[in-house]
Amino acid sequence: MNFLLFDDRELAPHLRPFTFTRPVAHIRIGIYTMAERWAKMLNHEVFVCGSELSQKMYPIPNDLNEVILINSAWIPNQSEAELVSALQPGEMIVKDNLRLASFCGDINYFILNGQINNHAEKIHQLPEAEVITRPWEIFSKNGKILRSDFELIRAGRDSEEISDPYTMVYEKNQIFVESGVDIKAAILNASEGPIYIGKNTQIQEGSAIKGPFALLENSVVNMGAKIRTDTTIGPNCKVGGEISNCVFFGYSNKAHDGFLGNSVIGEWCNLGADTNNSNLKNNYGEVKVFSYEAQKMVNTGLQFCGLLMGDHSKTSINTMFNTGTVVGVGCNIFDGGFPPKHVISFSWGGSRDGFELHQFDKFIETEKRVFARRKIALNPLYVEMLRSLFEIKKGLFQLQTNPLFGYSM
User: Fold this and answer.
1) Among the residues of 130-223, which ranges form H helices?
2) Which of 42, 81, 95, 349 could pair covalently with 129 via S-S, beta carbons 3.0-4.6 A apart?
3) pLDDT tens digit string along 72-117?
4) Looking at the structure, do residues 111 and 72 belong to the same domain, yes or no?
5) Boundary-marking domain end, from 209, 231, 251
6) What is the CATH number of the domain that holds 60?
């Protein structure tokens, strides 16, 4: 049996800016990415296919047979994963009208149409299935998913010991430490939720961490950091200052002081010293954010919502973000002050002098240096994908009469 995670064509655009540069299956929430979680629960390799710009990087294997197609936005529990594994020809799993999984007898139909065939002889309804449908749900649901992922990752395993005598630990049985971890003079409080500390990570002196919390492999919590509940720091990140209910996908830095709350930070981002965001409106009302799919501001239904930042975006020191700001891919924000609540991808500038379109070749040169610091080479297909996105943004950027506040896909 083969398992293929696919991006629903109607749902995936609602998860921009994060799905500009990755399949939904590579979104991280809790401890795992969507694909990692499915592979763990199914105890089986899973294939990932992209949509739109990421199709070339994640093509659909055309030699698969006996394939079960799975909606990448679905976060299963163990019983749901077992139901998927047991699917037979003619069976489908749905949540209301959203197709979650189907036994696929004709992979060519899926390749041509990008969707599950509607015909099914037997339909399983899962009205309570957990599905990520909007980008702010990545942080708002992170605590719940982190708790379940913690039980999944530690099942049948023993934690490493915390040997540092100057580290204070609360609820030791709710803390799981992998190998190669370096912790010194920190406070780890798991009394309100679990704490997972991944391989080869560092938690430096004076850090205070409250669970639920996850620190993925090779990441660093800098001295004196204050990290509140429901936060995930993905692999190869460096974080400091004050962080509350945030998700970092990976390879991103917020190394200095400054507050970040109720936010999602993509990959290869860097937040300059004393970058801050607001996560609560002065009138305590519900927060609206820019929707790429709706091409307008939409209500999140949340009282707390901070910053949604796409991959490869960067800020200078003392950057300030309003409540519910959306930053696209490849932005460079400086100048101080508050940038607009939607910063178009590949924007270069700030609130004082406005924004212009970044030059793609200069953008890529910067990213090559960023990648080289991690001893990683840029994949040519990835560069091609970024260039395609840039060309789309270039055309739309030039149409805006006021690119500071203009909307684009």
Assistant:
1) 137-140, 142-154
2) 95
3) 999 999 999 999 999 998 899 999 989 999 988 666 556 555 556 6
4) yes
5) 251
6) 3.90.550
pTM of the model: 0.93
Pair 270, 409 in one domain? yes
Which run of H or E residues covers position 365? helix 360-373
Q: Is the pLDDT of residue 135 over 50?
A: yes
Helix (H, G, I), strand (E, B) or coil at 33: strand
The answer for residues whose C-beta is within 8 angstroms of residue 408's C-beta and 6 or more apart is 292, 344, 345, 393, 396, 397, 400
CA 89 to chain centre: 33
Residue 221 near residue 242, CB atoms below 8 Å: no
d(CA 401, CA 292): 18
Q: Does position 165 have pLDDT exceeding 50, yes or no?
A: yes
Residue with token string 């749900």? 137
CA distance 351 to 354: 5
Judge if 148 and 285 occupy the same domain: no
What total number of domains does the chain contain? 3
pLDDT above 90 covers a percentage of the chain that reads 81
Residue that has been written with the tokens 């991944």 in this structure = 198
Amino acid at position 406, single letter: G
- For 303, half-sphere exposure in the C-beta direction (CA atoms, 13 angstrom radius) is 4
